[in-house]
Amino acid sequence: MSKDTVIYDMRGHVAIITINRPDVDNCIDPETNFKLSEAWSRFKDDDNAYVAIITGAGDRAFSTGADLKRWGDFIRSRKVNWFRKNAYYGPGFGGLTRGMDIFKPIIAAINGMCYAGGLEIALAADIRIAAEHAKFGVLNRRWNVGLGDGGTQRLWRVVGLGRALEMILTGKEIDAREAYRIGLVNEVVQKEKLMERSLDLAETIASYPQGAIRTDKEALIRGLGRQLEDGLRLENLLFWNLLLNRDFFEGMDAFKEKRKPMYTNENEKLGDVIKKKS
Question: Which of residues 9 and 270 earns the better pLDDT score?
């Protein structure tokens, strides 16, 4: 296993980002947090990367959250302005939870304990697949560490207000089956099948034309908290933005001509597309 605390690996169009600190249950120290931020920026900016999978090394833990032994000294060393800047711009915990708008699909392959900040990272993904031995909880409750990276904002949106308050206030641990029952995870699989299933799903998504996937995700995420009328306008603006991509016309033409579409996933100006058609 690599000594790097974050491993970035490409499988075709799928980026696999692995938190690689299995000896400490993949808890995240400030250095690893910075490396995760770099990994997510790399994924966001890479035109060849369509889908990401975030997971932890080994089969014991996805991530147990912050490395409290390391973060205490780091926080004490910061100046007041750093906290204000971090709150508005990030990077959030795990490089993903705040200050990083990514409208490409993200899958969390949860390979064990998923606690505190680790749970917040999983919540920032779009789809969560859990190994059958995975455990979840806001266990930071017992150390007087709050949720500062999306736990109070994303958890209730995923499982509902009552379930979220129960998990947050009691700090209870739940298993994978309970997580599936309340909607915290989308699937539960045997642990030896976790990455196989996650890759299979990622590759399926990557096989689609990416334009509509990204605009639909962006419309959903940006529409959260808006009035329905505003959300509908936003959705429609993003829909028509697909006209800037030649693949929009390729899909319609292929349907009309009864052939397999040849998508490029490359942006092309609307005017150039029209010229080629004329």
Answer: 9
All structural domains of the chain with their residue ranges: 6-206, 210-277
Instruction: Please state which architecture CATH assigns to domain 210-277.
Output: Orthogonal Bundle (1.10)
pLDDT higher than 90, residue 158: yes
User: Does residue 29 come out as left (phi exceeding 0), alpha (psi in the -120 to 50 range) or beta?
Assistant: beta
Q: Please count the helices (runs of H) and the strands (runs of E) in the chain.
A: 12, 10
pTM of the model: 0.89
Instruction: Name 53's Cβ contacts closer than 8 Å, sequence gap at least 6.
Output: 14, 15, 16, 17, 106, 107, 108, 109, 195, 198, 199, 202
**Assigned CATH for 6-206:** 3.90.226.10
Sheet of strand 106-110, all strands in order from the earlier edge strand to the far edge: 6-11, 14-19, 51-56, 106-110, 127-131, 187-189
Q: Which residues of 34-55 are buried (b: 16+ CB within 10 A; e: fewer)?
A: ebbbebbeebeeeeebbbbbbb
